[in-house]
Amino acid sequence: MQLPRIIRVKQNFPDRRLKDVAASVQAELKASPFASRIKPGGRVAIGVGSRGITNIATIAKAAVDFWKSAGCQPFIFPAMGSHGAATAEGQADVLAHYGIHEATMGCPVISQLEVVSLGKDANGIEAFLDKEAYNADGVLLIGRVKWHTDFAGKIESGLFKMMAIGLGKFAGAQRYHTYAYTKGLENVIRSVGRQVLASGKILGGLAILEDAYHNTAQVTAVPVDNMETQEEELLELTKSWMARVPFDLDILVIDEIGKNISGAGMDTKVANRGVNGEYNPWPGPKFQRIYLRDLSSLSYGNAVGLGMADVIHDRLLTKVNWTPTSINSLTASSPSATKTPLHYGSDLTCLEKFWPTVGKLDPADVTLGWIKNTLELSPLALSENLLPQIKQRPDLEILGDPETIELDAAGNFLTTLFEAHDLAHSH
User: Which of 219, 239, 293, 331 is the most exposed, fewest CB within 10 Å of its CB?
Assistant: First the structure.
């Protein structure tokens, strides 16, 4: 088959990045009531999750420095449910890969899986808290507020979800997801979160908001007495900044998935897929087929999300570590997200097989888009037949003439999506 020529396009989003992230964190924490709740010399547990949050090491270090300047003894602990293959060593390893370890933070990083029961919430669900955090004088949560990959609500991913699922380790994460299957995840997140707050152990949260380029755009100290309402407001704000693929497409090509990119491997609201295999369940651009080319090295073999694609390259399958992948998938009650799609040994074969399945007899009419991953949506490549629509969009900038996708002898792309000149344009 003849692959279409592609046009490289830059999406121009508002750039909301903070000029000095560490200073912004310090200013927010100093203006908050958090330190007044801890006596000098008190131990403060700082909970950090497993997501690939921009500047997370800088933000965590600034929080550590704040507590030290307040005369306290901070330590960091992983607040990530079952991630890191649900082992203490694996969770410490996830943080270390983000640059969060004792040498860089200047404080202990304590990873262990023992939990303390905080009693039952209004739904009858037992809440748990990391034992080391429970034994500290207070807990500060550091988390990004954003849309969740599995559901839509007024509270999705953020500080409440971290309290409900992250703080409870494997014991909690498994239990909460099981209840969520029948009661709904937002309901469980709110009720377990309230139970955790009622323990009096939480000092507050530092909410991180990212712009469409995934720059750190806002850090907000969120006190416990207003956490639920404030998180709803922050979620609404960050949703309004969301980056998307600009058009409906017949085929969306994605270079990579990974846990560092999204909890579901790919951001379901960008790829418009449900973790149980639903096609186009969310508002926004719709895609008939998804072709997935690879697994991010920063996902460390966890390939959760591959089941949402229609076809994948063989190279991705060879990189899957089924232990963390299956633990994650089963803990989240979403086994469909790890089903193995059809797979072939070359890019050309993967596209050739799926080209005729989108309801168009003439291959020249098939529309194609190509992104690096669901986090990085600029620059992207679009098939030449979309040129009239591209020209109508003032937020889209064409980065050169239409070009042929070059293939090697085996039928794999020699053309890469991200060239050096693209990266220079992308921010």
Answer: 239
Judgement on whether residues 320 and 177 belong to the same structural domain of the protein: no
What number is the average pLDDT over the span 151-165? 88
pTM (2 decimals)? 0.81
Residue ranges making up the domain that contains 279: 6-13+242-425
Distance CA 117, CA 126 (A): 7
The radius of gyration of the chain's CA atoms, rounded to the nearest angstrom, is: 22
Q: What is the DSSP string of 113-164?
A: --EEEEEE-TTSPEEEEEHHHHHSSEEEEEEE-B--SS--SSS-BSHHHIII
**83-92, 319-328, 344-353: lowest mean pLDDT where?**
83-92
Q: What are the tens digits of pLDDT across the range 235-248?
A: 999 999 999 999 99
Structure confidence by residue, pLDDT tens digits, 17-55: 999 999 999 999 999 999 999 999 999 999 998 667 899
Q: Which residues of 163-194 are buried (b: 16+ CB within 10 A; e: fewer)?
A: bbbbbbbbbbbbbbbebbeeeebbbbbbbbbb
Interacting residues of 31 by C-beta distance below 8 A, sequence separation 6+:
221
pLDDT digits (tens, 9 = 90+) for 371-410: 999 989 999 999 999 999 999 999 999 999 999 999 999 9
- Distance in angstroms (rounded) separating the CA atoms of residues 365 and 353: 16
Pairing of strands 115-120, 138-144: unpaired
Nearest to 130 by CA among 92, 77, 177: 77
Q: What is the mean pLDDT of residues 111-123?
A: 90
Cα 275 off chain centre by: 14
Residues found in the chain:
427
Identify whether 1 is part of a domain: no
Answer yes or no: do 274 and 412 share one domain. Answer: yes
Q: Give CA angle at 222 (219, 224), nearest 5°.
A: 160
SS3 assignment, position 271: helix
DSSP string, 284-340: S--EEEEEE--B-GGGTT--TTGGGSSEEEHHHHHT--HHHHHHHHHHTT-GGGG--
Give the Cβ contact number of residue 88 at 10 Å: 15
Binned at pLDDT 50, 70 and 90, residue 69 comes out as very high
Q: Looking at this protein, which amino acid is placed at residue 358?
A: V
DSSP secondary structure string for all residues of 359-402: S-SSGGG--EEEES-SS--SSEEEEGGGHHHHHT-TTEEE-SS-
Q: Could you tell me if 255 and 234 lie in one domain?
A: no
